[in-house]
Endonuclease III homolog
Amino acid sequence: MVVVSVGAAGLGGIKVLMMSETTRFFVRRNKRSRAMSQKDHLPSTQYHNKKFDLPEIEEFAYRGANKLIQSRTSEMDSTVTSVESEVASSRPSGESPANWEIVLEGIRKMRCSADAPVDTMGCEKAGDTLPPKERRFAVLVSSLLSSQTKDQVTHGAIQRLLQNDLLTADAINNADEEVIKKLIYPVGFYTRKAFNLKKIANICLMKYGGDIPNSIEQLLSLPGIGPKMAHLVMNVGWNNVQGICVDTHVHRICNRLGWVSRLGTKQKTLTPEETREALQRWLPKEEWVPINPLLVGFGQTICTPLRPRCGDCSISELCPSAFKETKNSSPSSKS
């Protein structure tokens, strides 16, 4: 046997011991190599958070096509190297979950009363009495204001802008930013949103004749506009379905129902954008538009973020998360 020992400096320090005809190689790794290896195998979420921090007012804001691709590649690479992620998904990619049609029909029946805020004050209701061009801009403004803000608050801000004739690109471009702040308060991050509204209005005037962009890519280039907003505006403003509009309600409920998972794993999706991609792999396209108001209203009334009302839900027997969060949120379990 021939034993070859290779030092960290490379092949220059080879020591050969002639023992038999078999040859074995032993490679000694230095500390720096080990450190680099550990860095390469950081958990995907840890590595992702360091390089791709999300903006403060849009929980899944668009960071550019290249960064999204890099982010997904990084996540997939680190996922493949981790032991936990070697398990295949519970169902093949693109295969619909069991009983999803029954569950969806059950949610429709629970939502037939249309008693959720989204039914009367959702972004798609903004400027519904205005001409098409003005309405598209109103929907874009409403979508921007809706981030991390309840529908009731967003609706009130839109009504105040409308009453003050400040719901067109030209009017907002000429208005004082302090006036816009006062009118949209108390929407979340109203100061930043007022600043972005001024920039958006100017872009729409300079590049689109006072109208709004008519493509996902152009909408995403506007300040403060993320994928959820862009898809909603395309659906409502241009009647062009490019994807599912996924907000925090849709994101939460789809994960509770077990409808989505991270690609190649059984893990829950971490962001609404991941949920959108996972949902679009199997949900029929005719459901892409109605799924948003349906699940948003369901999330506002029954499948709430905290203490979901599983006892009032008619499809709880088909939900893998039924009663789990209700029990965990009870006062007795906390004590």
